[in-house]
What does this fold into?
Amino acid sequence: MRKYKKILVLFVAALFVMSVVPMALAEQGEKININTASVQQLCNLKRVGPAYAERIVQCRETNGPFAKAEDIMKVKGIGAKTYEANKDIITVE
It folds into this structure.
């Protein structure tokens, strides 16, 4: 039973590290290019989960690359609040 508890603790710790490190990198000036980022990378944006990240990818595949960061608001469900929360860390270059 102790072995399973250790494994569970290590698993939870690994998940925590995997979720915190990308956000910390983004806060340190690492920008996320919404024209090239994967679904997983887009999930690091504030207020963006897997469903919205997939919509971003689908939007750029259907309509071509975003011309400016504000164009992320063309994605269904992503509005001004999400853009404002991320405007300093998203790029299209």
In short: The helical segments are 2-27, 39-42, 50-63, 80-86. The mean pLDDT is 88. The first strand starts at residue 32 and ends at 33.
